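Weekly sync, protein design subgroup
Attendees: M.S., D.O., the rotation student, P.L. (late)

Item 1: inverse folding check
M.S. brought a backbone from last month's batch and wanted to see whether the design step gives back something sensible before we order anything. D.O. pointed out we never logged the input encoding, so this time it goes straight into the notes. Structure tokens as presented (388 positions):
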């Protein structure tokens, strides 16, 4: 059951109860903050992130915490509102005194919060998709999801392999959609891709038939790419099928990499391709794949606890939390500056999104090999062999 859109604080070790208020026990806890879009239009992102953080903080605390300290997780729900996100970020710094932040479900809310954590010099690991979060590199800002630029590159790699060079784009005007559209325009020439037509839609639009009709009228179009997230891409996919355009390949972004997209799009999703994390096809990975155990274990734990299908978005939260926890262990300190330095030194971290190798010039640490190209068949995800 969803909690109302309001301040939502989890005392991660319930056995401590009200005794957390005592000085002795307070010294045995460390506060980690999170601002998520648990309700509102981006709840498909924030809800699995929220559930993931809660269940794994419970597991960490039950095992003794981090360096003998229990994590006191403070979560606020911004409802997808960037202004609320910034207000909550300020509260986490000024009132809650957090030593680190994991969260930021969307690009818009993340970008609104970045100045707060940068000024306070508190490490911030975001779950948002746009490359703008970590490019240019900011000292205290990191992220776990693959970037929109990487999504464009992975899609264009597949288009090139299929000898499809003339495309159309229909993009959402939200922060992620606009950012990915810009990245696709920028990298298209590197892959010999020509963008022959472009259309956009707003986050509240409920029908994209007019835009798709214009695209259908351009005879040279060989494929269509839809940068966007939320309900928009599902509407695009349904309208696409209604217009009889399914003979032209449709590509979506990793912003729809959850079972809810397939459910919303229905039979029209058949044949849609998208880049996504290994998490969605964990059971199909070979046993030799270093990610297999991580993604299969996370999927099992999440689905048994949350009673709903796993999504890549919860995986972003899993990766962010454990990158932070491992950095705290290496730092052997609750000093935000020392923790920040250790996050930046993350090497060989096997997460749901890939194998992470960060550096002072790379606050993501993933390359294109972390993306799998998937196709929806029979209402489920299937892996596409390289070059097909």
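Designed sequence read out in the meeting:
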């Amino acid at each position: 059951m969803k909690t109302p859109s309001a301040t939502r604080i989890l005392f991660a070790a319930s056995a401590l109860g009200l005794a957390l208020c005592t000085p002795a026990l307070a010294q045995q806890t460390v506060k980690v903050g999170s601002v998520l879009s648990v309700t509102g239009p981006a709840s498909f992102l924030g809800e699995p992130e929220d559930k993931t953080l809660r269940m794994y903080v419970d597991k960490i605390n039950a095992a003794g915490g981090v360096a003998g300290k229990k994590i006191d997780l403070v979560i606020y729900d911004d409802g997808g509102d960037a202004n609320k996100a910034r207000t909550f970020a300020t509260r986490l710094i000024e009132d809650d005194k957090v030593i680190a932040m994991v969260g930021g479900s969307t690009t818009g809310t993340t970008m609104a919060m970045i100045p707060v954590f940068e000024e306070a010099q508190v490490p911030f690991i975001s779950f948002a998709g746009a490359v703008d979060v970590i490019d240019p590199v900011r000292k205290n800002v990191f992220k776990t999801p693959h970037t929109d630029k990487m999504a464009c590159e992975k899609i264009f790699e597949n288009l090139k392999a299929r000898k499809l060079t003339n495309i159309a784009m229909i993009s959402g005007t939200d922060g992620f959609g606009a950012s990915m559209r810009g990245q696709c325009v920028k990298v298209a020439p590197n892959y010999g891709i020509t963008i022959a037509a472009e259309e956009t839609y707003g986050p509240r639009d409920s029908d994209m038939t007019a835009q798709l009709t214009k695209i259908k009228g351009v005879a040279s179009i060989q494929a269509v790419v839809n940068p966007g997230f939320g309900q928009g891409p599902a509407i695009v996919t349904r309208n696409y099928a209604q217009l009889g355009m399914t003979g032209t390949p449709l590509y979506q972004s990793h912003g729809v990499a959850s079972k809810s997209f397939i459910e919303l799009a229905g039979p029209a999703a058949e044949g849609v391709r998208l880049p996504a994390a290994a998490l969605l096809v964990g059971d199909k990975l070979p046993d030799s794949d270093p990610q297999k155990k991580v993604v299969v274990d996370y999927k099992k734990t999440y689905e048994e606890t949350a009673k709903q299908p796993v999504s890549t978005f919860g995986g972003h939260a899993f990766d962010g939390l454990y990158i932070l926890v491992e950095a705290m262990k290496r730092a052997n300190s609750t000093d935000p500056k020392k923790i920040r330095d250790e996050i930046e030194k993350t090497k060989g971290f096997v997460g749901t999104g890939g194998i992470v190798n960060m550096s002072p010039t790379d606050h993501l640490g993933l390359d294109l090999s972390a993306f799998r190209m998937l196709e929806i068949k029979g209402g489920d995800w299937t892996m596409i062999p390289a070059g097909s």
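Discussion: The radius of gyration is 21 Å. The chain is about 40% helix and 20% strand.
Action: P.L. to compare against the previous round before Friday.
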